[in-house]
Amino acid sequence: MFAPYSTFGSRQAMSSAYTRVGVESSVAGGASPHRLVLMLMDGVLEAILQARGAIAARDVEAKGRAIGRASRILEEGLKAALDLKSGGELAHNLHALYTYVIGRLMHANLHNDEAALLESQRLLQPVRDAWTEIGAQTLAG
Hints:
The protein is mainly alpha-helical. It contains five helices and no strands. 77% of the residues lie in helices and 0% in strands. The mean pLDDT is 85.
């Protein structure tokens, strides 16, 4: 079991959030909680890349959509699925990280601040990489 996430509620929350942000997949068909976290992390990072491109292209509407998507995935998927009661320090640290990144995304949206998007990306990428490594170890073990 993945300590910061409960197995029942988190899967449901992550699946629901992933569906709400418009991603077509077989999430409802039984993706594991681990796979759902990776999909959500990929969705957040992809949305941040899209927002960076929109800022460069001076496309305010696309920037807002991309940042909104990243924020929703963080808030309604990853953050909502954390099991703060039994997930221990890791769950609380992830909660704080996701809250901070959501704030940086709002700042980036208001100020067209690509540096805030880069910071968000740099903060989330190691978490995504760790989940990838966990999956590889789980399959190998």
